[in-house]
Amino acid sequence: MRILSGIQPTNVPTLGNYIGAIKNFVKMQNENQDADILVFVADLHSITVPRDRKDIKKNIRSLAALYLASGLDPNRTHIFIQSEVHEHAELGWVLECNSYIGEMERMIQFKEKSAKEGASVTTGLLTYPCLMAADILLYDTNLVPVGEDQKQHVEITRDIAIRFNNKYGETFVVPEPMIQKSGARIMSLQDPLKKMSKSDPNPKGYITLLDDINEAKNKIKRAVTDSIGIVKYDTVNQPAVSNLMTIYSSFTNMSFDEIENKYSGLGYKEFKEDLSEIVANELTKIQTKYNEIINSNELDKILDEGRDYASRIAYKKMAKVYKRIGLGRY
Ligand code: ATP
Ligand code: LTN
């Protein structure tokens, strides 16, 4: 079985990315000893909107180090940078020629992001799901661990794979998304109806894995709640507290019932104090490891190994794709 996922190196990953995606990669790594696992830095994806060169460079290395600091083990998981395996872009093009503008325009993320960009929507923002499909299909991926917002992109990947197989003969494995029951959609700390996002213009809405520890604690303490005053998991009437409980539960493995019992009769203050300590402990652990890794040669060795491993698989698949279509001299 093969498991694959990636994250865009836009800004530093948030608690949402950590709980919805990275923690899940680590869990799958530790629970599936026989699986072949690839996790990459989706740098080609990060240029669908304009980015500063220096930021891209810094974020790529930083994301790779955060994967390791979060518990990905280079002896178990191959970590690489997407643009260093050129077949991603090549297969992306082929899949663009096997998908339709109408289906790309229906993607929720395209609708949301293009609305934000106004007049300067790039073609890449529209065709992005074809590149994501290429990332997945190049490696005969069975399972794709992602947060809730990426489900639609894995579904379109399935559609494209089935369509290609029907047209050219069995070429791609049809993948399944792997989305956790709890924590797949962490909400903003300032607006519980909005997804926590690393590109939110208001930094109080999110905590990144590299935030200053005191600042992170303050963001929890100042997170919006409601006037009901009871720690209760009720996403309809108490979405903000429920979101904080999801973060609490994800870091402590306590159930919502257990958390409700622990804080029964107490207000939000105690709950938030405890949660801010829990988050601070988790961030401190990650940041300590991150600081050991970020400037090491070890990181480059790991990324070289990951690139070489991924390239060997991607090269073969690409030759098969060209052969099926009739391109080149295969
Ligand atoms: P951006 O704001 O730059 O679009 P993002 O914060 O939405 O970024 P992505 O790089 O698109 O992050 O996502 C990386 C992974 O994290 C994906 O698997 C995505 O589903 C997951 N993810 C993103 N935001 C959340 C969230 N708020 N809760 C849970 N999972 C999330
Ligand atoms: N589009 C994803 C990142 C991503 C990805 C992938 C995830 C790019 N390629 C392949 C899983 C599999 C996002 O989070 N924005």
Descriptors for this entry?
330 residues, mainly alpha, 7% strand, globular, binds adenosine-5'-triphosphate, binds L-tryptophanamide
Plain-language structure description:
The protein has 330 residues and is mostly helical. It is built from 12 helices and 5 strands. It has a 3-stranded parallel sheet. α2 (53-69) packs across α11 (268-293). The longest helix has 29 residues, at 297-325. Adenosine-5'-triphosphate binds at residues 7-8, 10, 14, 16-17, 19-21, 146-147, 149-150, 184-186, 195-199.
- Beta-strand fraction estimate: 5-15%
In what order do the strands lie side by side in the largest sheet? 1-2-3
Mean pLDDT over the residues: 96
Level of helix content? 40-55%
SSE order, one letter for each helix or strand = EHEHEHHHHEHEHHHHH
What overall form do the CA principal axes indicate?
globular
Structural class assignment: mainly alpha
Biggest β-sheet strands, sense, barrel = 3 strands, parallel
This entry's quaternary arrangement is: single chain
Give me the Rg, rounded: 21 Å
Bound molecules: adenosine-5'-triphosphate, L-tryptophanamide
How many individual β-strands? 5
N-end to C-end Cα span: 28 Å
- Helix segment tally: 12
Extract low-pLDDT stretches. Answer: none
